[in-house]
Amino acid sequence: xxxxxxxxxxxxxxxxxxxxxxxxxxxxxxxxxxxxxxxxxxxxxxxxxxxxxxxxxxxxxxxxxxxxxxxxxxxxxxxxxxxxxxxxxxxxxxxxxxxxxxxxxxxxxxxxxxxxxxxxxxxxxxxxxxxxxxxxxxxxxxxxxxxxxxxxxxxxxxxxxxxx
Length: 164
Known about the structure:
The chain contains seven helices and two strands; from the N terminus they run αααααααββ. By secondary structure, the chain is of the alpha+beta class. Strands 1-2 form a two-stranded antiparallel ribbon. Helix 3 (48-58) packs parallel to helix 7. The longest helix has 15 residues, at 87-101. The two termini are 23 Å apart.
């Protein structure tokens, strides 16, 4: 209802199971599966502004104790993992993403919506599917992100963020 009220398309598919982007993190985080989970797929048009708008639409759920979790990757290029030639470009994109996430609502939304203009953007994300969950989580908060995770994984820079 919140998505539709915001003018976004939404439907429910009761036949599909949880995607690995939901199942894997929640299996680690909550192995007993004692909380209800509603998965939201990325929109097939891959428009970052739409995903940020979806986060804004879902933001009121946070005041009801609902956790909005965006499971993706700050770097996701399967050809780049393990290749030292991707270290510097992945770090450049990670630095840009960290700076963009640290901005407040409107400025962050503007920067994230234009993510393809960032240094090494398409090298870090040939397809946007693994970056768009961050857009939803970012849209659900006006506060700057806390940079809660940073590591080099398989020669590439990886970061995680929390939006309060």
